[in-house]
Amino acid sequence: MTQGLHLTADLYGCAADHPWMTCADALRQACLDAVTQCGLHPVGECFHRFPSPAQGGPGGVTGMVLLAESHLAVHTWPESGLVTLDVFVCNQGQDNRSKAWALREALMKDLAPAQASLHALERGLPEA
C-alpha cells in the first residue's frame, strides 16, 4: 500500500448562484459534513471569502479542512463557474483511499459540474 492518495478535480460549469460558490460558511459546513460522513477526522479548518465583483474582487471562496489523515482544499471562482478540489489522505495505519474517493464524489455530486477533469496520484514511499 502506498503512503497516500492525492485526488484532484477541476469542475467546470458549476452554477454561480450555488451557495458554496460565494458563501464561506455554507462551503465550510458542507465540507465538514462531507468529511465526517466519509469517515475522516477534521482537526482544523480555515475558509475565506474574497470580495465580491462589486467590491473589486472575484467573490469566490477558498477553504481548507486539515484532517488527521491529511487535508481537503476547495477553491471557487463563481465568475467562471469553476471549482477545484484537492483531497489528500495518508494511509498510515489503515487504508483511507476509499474515504478519499467518497469525499471527492460527495462534493462533486452537490456541485453538479457540466464537465470535470479528474486526477489521482498514489504518493509516498515506493513499495519495499
CATH architecture: 4-Layer Sandwich
Q: How much of the sequence is in beta strands?
A: 35-45%
So, the CATH homologous superfamily? S-adenosylmethionine decarboxylase
Gyration radius, rounded: 15 Å
Overall, the morphology is: globular
Report the uncertain regions: none
Largest sheet report: 6 strands, antiparallel
Any descriptors?
128 residues, alpha+beta, S-adenosylmethionine decarboxylase, 6-stranded antiparallel β-sheet, 3 helices, 6 strands
Summarize this structure briefly.
By secondary structure, this protein is an alpha+beta fold. It contains 3 helices and 6 strands.
Reconstruct the topology from this structure.
Elements: E1 4-12, H1 19-22, H2 24-37, E2 42-49, E3 61-67, E4 70-77, E5 82-90, H3 97-111, E6 115-123
Antiparallel strand pairs: 1-5, 1-6, 2-3, 3-4, 4-5
Describe this structure in words.
By secondary structure, this protein is α+β, with helices and mostly antiparallel strands. It has three helices and six strands, in the order E-H-H-E-E-E-E-H-E. A hairpin with a 4-residue loop joins strand 4 and strand 5. The longest helix is centred in the last third of the chain and has 15 residues, at 97-111.
